[in-house]
Amino acid sequence: MAARPVFVSYSQSDREPAFGIVERLEACGIECWIAPRDVAPAADWAAEIVEAIAAARVMVLVFSSSTNDSPQVRREVERAVHRRVAVLPFRIEEVLPSKSLEYFLSSQHWLDAFPPPLEPHYRRLSEYLRTFLSAPAPAPAAATVTGTFAAPPAGTATGATGTVPALIDAAQLKRFETELAGYIGPLARHLVKRAAASAAGPESLIVMLGTEIESEAERSRFTHACRQFLRTGR
Q1: Of 17, 35, 88, 145, which has the fewest Cβ atoms less than 10 A away?
Q2: Does any domain span residue 65?
């Protein structure tokens, strides 16, 4: 999937203004990613969204009252913030974000796109993004995890090259996915699959997946539940 600098997030009721944004930006030479247009046939929808957000420089969030009621939009905003992708709310109604979105948007710059017509607001958005995207992209920050890690679980062997955990079995993968989904939703399936491909073992995978959870308290609960499953099988 080719990287595109702008990811457009919207609730279904705001489809028309969302695609209006894409049409206007692409007419100005600014490439956009928007679902379902850019989801490849037969592709994993969640995987495509995760990759598109990670590849973007900025997320344009079409914001309205319906945005507050969309779990999918909230998950997309969470992913963007977690990946340090700039979020630009394009507010088409005079409404404030819900509590669940306010945490992620309170410090963001907003563009108000009311009253209609939308065309002058599209033009202002295009000008803003041209300036934003012309600046050098910031260097990616290294992912960090805080807290105390437990010792590797039983069943590992050590040698000259360090700790070599036992293989990750299907039951562990399923349990880790279920636990992670409780915090980030259906994106968990793709993230577990991707992380498992490079994880050295169950403990390594738990640590990697924990970095996908923004809240330290929730991350701690996730890692504790996963490690308990490794020890007890339940």
Answers
A1: 145
A2: yes
Residue 125 lies in a domain: yes
Domain that holds residue 209: 157-232
Geometric angle at alpha carbon 13, from 120 and 28, rounded to 5°: 35
Question: Rounded to the nearest 5 degrees, what angle is found at the Cα of 110, between the Cα atoms of 109 and 116?
Answer: 160
Q: What is the pLDDT of residues 133-163, one digit of tens each?
A: 998 876 654 443 333 333 334 443 333 333 3
Residue 193 in any domain: the answer is yes
CB 66 within 8 A of CB 93: no
Q: Are 91 and 61 in contact (CB under 8 A)?
A: no
φ, ψ (nearest 5 deg) of residue 32? -125, 155
* 116 & 48 share domain: yes
**Is residue 161, in this structure, part of any structural domain at all?**
yes
At 15-47, the pLDDT tens digits run 999 999 999 999 999 999 999 999 988 888 888
